[in-house]
Amino acid sequence: MTPVKDIKTYIESRLNTKFIGRRLYYYQRLATTMKTAKELAKKGTVEGTVIIADTQTAGKGRLGRTWVSPEGSLAISIILNPSLNNLPQLVMIASLAVVRTIKKVAGIQAQIKWPNDVLIKGKKVCGILIENEVKGYKVNFAIIGIGINVNLDPLVFPKIADIATSLSHELGAEVSKAALLSTLLPELEQLYLDVQAGAPIYREWQKNMGMLGSRIQVKTGEAIEQGTAETVTENGSLVLRRSDGSIAEIVAGDVTVIKD
Predict the structure, then answer these.
(1) One CATH from 3.20.20.220, 3.40.190.10, 3.90.1170.50, 2.30.30.100 for 215-257
(2) What is the pTM of this model?
(3) Is residue 50 within 8 Å of 25, Cβ to Cβ?
(4) Closest by alpha carbon to 145, among 1, 30, 6, 3?
(5) 4-207 has CATH 3.30.930.10 classification
(6) pLDDT in tens, 60-89
């Protein structure tokens, strides 16, 4: 395993971003990067501060679920100060940056599963979590959390072996975390700047959404909807066409593809 100091030095020496990653904290082991990021954000750290950990002992995913972060994975949290209007695009920025990075670094075409997962051949390789603090119409801060399975063997973890994969497992060789991060952070920054300039990145997000056109089930709390995933909107909602032809626009939920 490459020492944390060496990876941090590699990233800092090659990073060509304006602000994302210019303040960088890299830990071999941390309870959760999101907690550390939130503490730093509340203290007023600069926008673009990045917290990275090789392993997390208390990682959490969406809805408070446990996120397995063993050795070989990578947890990243990025602190931003977006406008209120740009909050819905943060999950698009994160997932597109991951898809682009995986293609550039590993040569693998990944796909997005609405609302916040990245898959390879139908198995989860990355999860995304967005947290923010909003008061009135002002966003005090927002944090993009990204968990990527880089160099781990999913077969070692029976609970996730059927639903998860890793870059090394798909590629058949280890992937450089330093190279991955040196590509991911500039991709994140460019997409973030594009959104601020008004670019419709949801179109690229839509093109990389692997489940569109499929029959799906969406569970939101106790409510369950079934139908065909038609498209996604500019604000990140999923458009579902029910069997009777009516349309439902879903803001959040868990999606399962219905197999014939």
Answers:
(1) 2.30.30.100
(2) 0.93
(3) yes
(4) 30
(5) yes
(6) 655 555 666 778 899 999 999 999 999 999
